[in-house]
Structure formats: C-alpha cells, structure tokens
Amino acid sequence: MTETLAPRTSGAPAAGRHRRDDSAVERGEATAAKRVLLAAPRGYCAGVDRAVVAVEQAIEHYGAPVYVRKEIVHNKYVVETLSERGAVFVDETDEVPEGARVVFSAHGVSPAVHEAAARRSLETIDATCPLVTKVHREAVRFAADDYDILLIGHEGHEEVEGTAGEAPDHVQVVNSPDEVDRVTVRDPDKVVWISQTTLSVDETMETVRRLRERFPTLQDPPSDDICYATQNRQVAVKKLAPECDLVIVVGSRNSSNSVRLVEVAKEYGARAAFLVDYAKEIEPSWFDGVATVGVTSGASVPEILVQDVLAHLAERGFADVSEVRTATEDLMFSLPRELRTALKESGQGPARPARGGRRALPFDPA
Ligand code: SF4
Fold first, then answer.
1. Closest C-alpha residue for ligand 1 atom 5
2. Whole-structure pTM value
3. Would the CB of 48 count as within 6 Å of ligand 1?
4. Which are the catalytic amino acids?
5. N or C: which end of the chain has fewer CB within 10 A?
6. CA–CA separation, 351 vs 366, rounded Å?
7. Which residues, 6+ apart, have CB-to-CB distance to 221 below 8 Å?
8. pLDDT per residue over 251-309, tens digit each?
C-alpha cells in the first residue's frame, strides 16, 4: 500500500489534543492562558495535491526513476520524500536521459521547455496546476490581440518564467508597486494586467491601483489570477493575526504563498511571524511573553508537518488549539491527461486519490 503525501485528516482533531469546535476569536474571549489559533484553510491546495499525487502514481505505474523538472512543489519535505521513493529532480530537461519520462511541476513551464523536451524525445507528464494554465491562456490570448501584458509577479519565480514565456514579446514583469513608474508600453490604451497565482492580494491590488493611475483604461484579467487557495489562506491569517503574539507559518523559503502568509500575519497585527519547514526550527526565544500562537501552512505543505508543530507547541504548554475557519475547500483536479490515459489503458484508472480521506481507485493510501 502506498503512503501518500496528500493530507488525510485536514481539519480533524489530532489524537489527545483538545480542540474547541468554535472559534475563540468569534467568541471574543480574552484570556492570558496559552492557546493556539489554527488557521483553516491551510496546507495543500488542489493543484499541489494533484502534482504530488501525479509523481507518486507515475513512480508506482512506471517504476523509478521518474524525472521531475524543478521542485514538483516548493516544499522541502515533499521533495525529500518523493526523492526517497524514486523521483529524480533536475533543473532542466537536458539533464534527463533521452527518451525518459519527465514530470513538469505545478508551477508550469513555457512553450520553450515543451520544445526542449520534444527535441530529446522525452515522455512528459504536465502537472502544471490548471489555475496556472488558465493564466498562460490569458497571456496567449492577450498577446494574440497585441496587448502589452503587465505580469505582476516575482521575476525569476518558475511560474512567472513559464507565463512570460508564453508571449515573451508582449509580457513585462512588474515585481511590486514601486516598479510601476518604470513600466513603458507601446499604446497606453491597450494594456492588460495579469498576475502570478500566489501573490499578496493587498499588494497586488496596490500595484494595480498605481498602474491604473498611469494607464486609466488598464484592462483587468477575465477572472482572479491569484488563486482561491492563496486567497483563502491569507483571509484565514488576516482573521487570526490580530489575536496573536506569534504566528508560525509552516512552509519553505522558496514557497511564494508561504512567504506571503508571514507578511500578511505581520501586516494584520501579529507581533511576530516566522516561517519554518519543520517544528525543530522553532526557537525558544520566540515565546517570550507569548500567550497566543497562530499556526498556518502554505499551499504546498503536508498536514503532517503542521501536526508536528502542534505537538511541539503542546510540549511548551500550548495544548489548547482552536480552529479559526474562514472557508471550506472541496476543489479537486483530475490527474494530468497523460497519466490518466496511461492508467486507464493499463486497467488501473482513471485513478485519482482525493484529499481529506476521500479516495478513489485504485488504492486506498490511508
Ligand atoms: S497555489 Fe493555487 S495556483 Fe498554485 S498550485 Fe495551488 S491551487 Fe494551483
């Protein structure tokens, strides 16, 4: 039976730990007792779940090694665990043996990467999150209509490279509100903004506001590019942060949405906020004068790491955990088409392990 990195008990009380059903924030209780406010939603999003399960199933179906271009998702534990199972992470397709199989990460790739893979006759499984693919399509469409496309995002991030690569002659990256004044366009009346999926909602809106001051007819994307998971995790942190002396965000330093959660926590009133990959990184000095600790995790973080942090906090006397829920998520994406087809042809599929303990064929990884 295959163990999965996908969370099984998201939101369920951990054994032996007291967790109130309703929110202390909602009830407005004031207490100096040590407590934890646990954000929900947190952790795995649908795109990460799909990408991780795609690698797991590719290894199971084809056998190791399965090559993965870049980190499948930006999480140290996920990458280490998949490596142990037979995934080989590479930076570029030219590191993959001719004709071998390679998975493209959830962050997406540019057409140039698909072409490079084709030149080496690689078998590809594209685990690009469908919500990233949506932004790629927007870039293609607006480029076809000859717009100047202002892509709000972080230069050098894989997702931004992939999206910009769809229309390199039309896209320019705007990193922050401070860069707005440096933007130049051909026709100020034919400009559209799109964005990376994992940005701070507030900062992005500020960038858009300043862009619109310069280009009053600036066109919006057809729908939100910052994805539901990024937005939901930020909303939950915004709600608990004002109550918190300390917020611990579980996530890796190269995880854009996790880093944003630290920023949002501080911005919305947490006295301090830190990012940790593992519970062992928590510093004793963080707890001086702390009564309320907020805990959340980025969209690429398995729940097991959050439970480790909660166990660590319980040992420090923070055993009273209240969930602060601001949304319920049930979105799930089907596996990449290439994998679905392969599984189906072998009589295994279409297989799709679901999140939160709901599982489909062909195996129950719980
Ligand atoms: S954070 Fe959003 S865009 Fe990125 S993988 Fe998750 S759902 Fe997709």
1. 47
2. 0.88
3. yes
4. 159
5. N
6. 15
7. 135, 138, 192, 193, 194, 195
8. 999 999 999 999 999 999 999 999 999 999 999 999 999 999 999 999 999 999 999 99
- Measured over the CA atoms of residue 29, residue 30, residue 33 and residue 37, the dihedral's sign is positive
Nearest CA to ligand 1 atom 8: 47
- Give residues with Cβ within 8 angstroms of 169, minimum separation 6: 143
348 backbone φψ class: left, alpha, beta (φ>0; ψ -120 to 50):
alpha
Nearest to 163 by CA among 185, 133, 190: 133
Write out the two tokens for 5: 């990195």
Mutating to test ligand 1, I would choose from 230, 231, 297, 331 the residue with most ligand atoms within 8 A of its C-beta, which is 230
CB-based contacts of 239: which residues, under 8 Å, 6+ apart?
Answer: 25, 39, 324, 326
Report the alpha-carbon distance of residue 205 to residue 334 in Å, rounded.
31
For the chain, what is the mean pLDDT? 89
The ligand 1 atom at the shortest distance from the C-alpha of residue 48 is 5
Residue located via tokens 């601001």 = 326
pLDDT confidence band for 7 (50 / 70 / 90): very low
